[in-house]
Structures are given as structure tokens and as C-alpha cells.
Amino acid sequence: MIDIHTHILPGMDDGSVSIEESIGMARMAAESGVSILVATPHCNLTGVFDNYYSSNFENRLITLRKVLQKEQIPIEILPGMEVYGTEEVPNLLRKGRLITLNHSRYLLMEFSFREDLLLTEYLIHEVKGLGYLPIIAHPERYPYVQKHPGIVYDWIQQGCLIQLNKGSILGSFGTRTRNTAIALLECNLVSVIASDAHSSARRTTDLTMIREFIENNFSKEYAEILLAENPRRVIENTDLIVPYNTCQARYI
Ligand SMILES: [Fe+2]
């Protein structure tokens, strides 16, 4: 499996707090059958987690790779960011201050928990105009999406792809988030599931349970597309499989 959304770079945001924690997260991922993690620290959260692309960013990535090699943990770490949606995003992209997932066309984006559909529509339009494809991180967590899940369909019509968090599907963020996640899965609106891991204790990199859940309640094929095939296509910068008509939803 390949996990395209993790906060494994130590000391950059509210994710891993130390190199030891990052080692634990990588080990846990490997043990659950993950071979590649994309490191996606929060960025463009002004004054909280700026984390714009820089040599410091690259150096932290290189350091983590070296440590994992020394520890003999078979995990590859690739560069990425979870970009917070503000009006500045198009300009920051032009200036090279934001990066996509493994420098592909796919930009992982999160939005405010407060509804601002005009801004999201503007951002999707602008980001696409620059030649990128937005992957919207965990839309199921936004209260306005929980109220009107059809918003996700509109975002897809505008050219976005959808990434759900494993914890949302498994119930870690409450019933509303879970029900929304399941509904989106049942409607085949999801392209990727990722861990959005923040540590090795809670919100972890372990994908065992989510793989089993999707296999048992949907299908093995659906699990493979969401946890392995589409994430691979993201980091290889090729077209994703749109999973229409591939799943037999049995979840009640
Ligand atoms: Fe995240």
C-alpha cells in the first residue's frame, strides 16, 4: 500500500514530535503492508504552520530517509504538502513555494472547517488553470459537507479528486463524520484513502484495519484501488481510476 497523506516529518506541525516518533510511525506503516509514505506537513496555515518549500524542508526529508535506512525500515519517504486553501495559493504555486505530491500534478488541499464555497470554487478553478489537479483531503470532516454531502459531487464536477481519512471511516471522528465517509464511499466519489497519521499512538500509519474494513464491506478490488493503485498513480503522475461501478456496497 501507499499512503499519500502523513504528518511524519518531525517538528514541522502538529504531527510527529521527534525523529523517534517518526521512526515508530514508519515501522508501524511497514508492518501493516505500506511501502511508501508521502510526507505532507500542514503548510500555508499562516502564523501557525507556514512550512513553505525550502532547503530546510528538503533537508528534513533527507535526514528522515537516512535514519530509516540506518534503522533498516523498508519505507520510502516522498515529498508533499497538505496545502491550506487561502486566496494566496495560486500565487504561492507560481512562485514554487508550495509543492504537490511527489512533484506530480496532484496537489493535496485542505479547506477551512467554516464553509466558504466561493473561495473553494475559486481555488479549484485557479489551481486547475495552473495545470494541477486538487485532491481534497478529508472533506467528510467538514460540518458543511456533513450537512450537504452533494458539495463533494460539485467539487468532483469542478475537477477535484477526493481523499478520505481512514479514521473517519472507522469512526474516530464521530458518527456524523463516519456516516458522511461511508456515504461518499457508497456513491463511488472517493479516489484515495490515506492515514492522515499524526503519531504512532493515535491517528497512526497502520492501514491494516481500514484495508480489512473496505475489503469486507465493499470489495477487495475497491480496497486495492483506494489504498494501493490510485495512490501509486498519484506519485507516478498518471491518471487515476475513477471507481464508478467497481464496488458492491454491502454496508448497512
Ligand atoms: Fe493532514
Could you tell me how far the N terminus lies from the C terminus, measured between alpha carbons in angstroms? 26 Å
Q: Roughly what is the average pLDDT, rounded to an integer? A: 94
**Structural shape:** globular
Strand fraction band?
Answer: 5-15%
The low-confidence runs, each spanning 5 or more residues with pLDDT under 50, are 245-252
Spatial order of strands in the largest sheet: 3-5-6-7-8-9
Instruction: Give me the CATH fold name.
Output: TIM Barrel
Secondary structure: helix percent: 40-55%
Task: Please explain how this structure is put together.
This protein has one domain (2-235): TIM Barrel, CATH 3.20.20. Helix 3 (89-94) links the parallel strand 5 and strand 6. It is globular, with a radius of gyration of 17 Å. The strands form 2 sheets. A 6-stranded parallel beta sheet has the order 3-5-6-7-8-9. Strands 1-2-4 form a 3-stranded parallel beta sheet. It has helices at 19-31, 55-70, 89-94, 117-129, 143-147, 150-157, 166-170, 175-186, 208-217, 220-235; strands at 2-6, 36-39, 42-43, 76-79, 82-84, 106-110, 133-137, 161-165, 192-194. Helix 9 (208-217) packs across helix 10 (220-235). The protein has 252 residues and is an alpha/beta fold. It is 41% helix and 14% strand. Fe (ii) ion (FE2) binds at residues 5, 7, 82, 137, 196.
